[in-house]
Amino acid sequence: MADKNNIPRLAVFPQTADVNKKGNLAIGGCDSVALAEKYGTPLYVFDETDIRSRCREFKEEFGKRYPGTIVSYSPKAFTAGAMFELVAEEGLELDVVSGGELAFALASGFPANRIHFPGNNKSREELELAVRERIGHIVVDNLPELNMLSNIADKRKVDILLRLNPGVDPHTHKHNATGIADSKFGLPKADWDEAVKTAMVEYNLNVDGLHFHIGSGLYEYQPYLNSLDEVLSYAADIKQKYKFKMNLLSIGGGFGAQYTVDAVPPTVASFAEAIIERFNSMCRELELETPKLMIEPGRKIVAQAGVALYTVGVIKEIPGVRTYVSVDGGMGDNIRQPMYGAVQEALVASRPADKDTKKVTISGKYCEAGDVLIKEIKLPELNAGDILAVAGSGAYCVPMSSNYNAALRPAIVFVKDGKARLIRRRETLEDLMIRDKEA
Ligand SMILES: Cc1ncc(COP(=O)(O)O)c(C=O)c1O
């Protein structure tokens, strides 16, 4: 039997990934080749044990250093009814960014008072829904939103956080940088004072605290520390000037996940250690009462738990140029490579222990030259019909999927203890046409 310790790439697959007696890649005790056969491909497989253990890791590592830290999962990374249920069971809160995510969470039974709502261009209808459902906090992004919200709240008292843009470079891909000065997200520094003053005089808005979120896929903790310096100094300033009391501070999400064997992000423990240390020392230095703390991880909770299974189709060898291995998915279910130049690892599901012998490009089946899943990877010799398992497919793949080329969006299964449960069926041709028929 193949020794899983001789397969370095398993490090970026889900925690339960293994090689079974047949020599196939197993996830959550389920044979990946059998899953592909039963449910078809492309198939997104999520390891429930992996997701739960990461939820607990965030709660424990932050909680033991700063008791009571609220861990609020960002479902934009992966949205599904089964995921909302899992997150509720694990005692996390939710950080939704649209009326759609909010409605989906509520319909899945997620308690409204544990839901918080950032977003840079919320519509009147979205704010009305949030107010009506009495969610935990609306995270106000800009001055027009503040006015619209006060108007909608009318006689009700609404808890809000103010999202400040601290103007800090998170050293991540520019498409994922949200807390730099040149960003559509959050209140620019020039608006901070006006927002605080306006919000504090509105009788129907309770400004419970401040919020920042500087980006996604961070591999360093220093940008969090720089943002804490900015925002806590400002909190001390407005405490003096306006008697502002910060009950809650959210430092957003952004914690980087591991996608490749060689690039290892800080552990949750080391993020927590550095962040809580600076948070406490700054509060002491500024003589600020320590507020409740909230974090909003998305990617690091689900990225590694998800594996996408594809079937290899056409293999095109262009002498002296490259070998394209086309699979039956691509940018329609995972647009991360074309969008951010993302890098992911893969294994052949039926031969994960085989030696890598050939450099190839894993391309999709969509009509774009940029439709690439993995730009360059060394794999064993591949044949049409092989099942390719792509690691790191849990975050920002399915939620960004599309019907480009009238493709059907994939099915999703949760696996645990040798059992698979279908949590979303594959789209059908009927699904594709239904809205046109009803128009
Ligand atoms: C406000 C907010 N919080 C949290 C997150 C989650 O970030 P990540 O998935 O990188 O942890 C995002 C993602 O963009 C966000 O916009």
Task: Tell me what the structure shows.
The protein has 439 residues and is α/β, with parallel strands linked by helices. It has two domains: 171 residues, Lyase, Ornithine Decarboxylase, Chain A, domain 1, CATH 2.40.37.10; 254 residues, TIM Barrel, CATH 3.20.20.10. 31% of the residues lie in helices and 22% in strands. The protein has twelve helices and 20 strands. The strands form three sheets. Strands 4, 13, 14, 15, 16, 17, 18, 19 and 20 form a nine-stranded mixed sheet that branches. A hairpin with a 2-residue loop joins β2 and β3. α4 runs parallel beside α5. The mean pLDDT is 96. Pyridoxal-5'-phosphate binds next to α10.
Give the arrangement of secondary structure elements:
Blueprint: E1 18-19, E2 25-27, E3 30-31, H1 32-39, E4 43-47, H2 48-65, E5 70-73, H3 81-89, E6 93-95, H4 99-107, E7 115-117, H5 124-132, E8 137-140, H6 143-153, E9 158-163, H7 189-201, E10 205-211, H8 222-242, E11 248-250, H9 268-285, E12 292-295, H10 299-302, E13 306-318, E14 322-327, H11 336-340, E15 346-348, E16 358-363, E17 372-379, E18 387-390, E19 411-416, E20 419-424, H12 429-438
The protein binds pyridoxal-5'-phosphate.
Structural class: alpha/beta
The beta-strand count equals 20
CATH architecture of the largest domain: Alpha-Beta Barrel
What is the rounded distance between the termini? 57 Å
The ligands bound in this entry are: pyridoxal-5'-phosphate
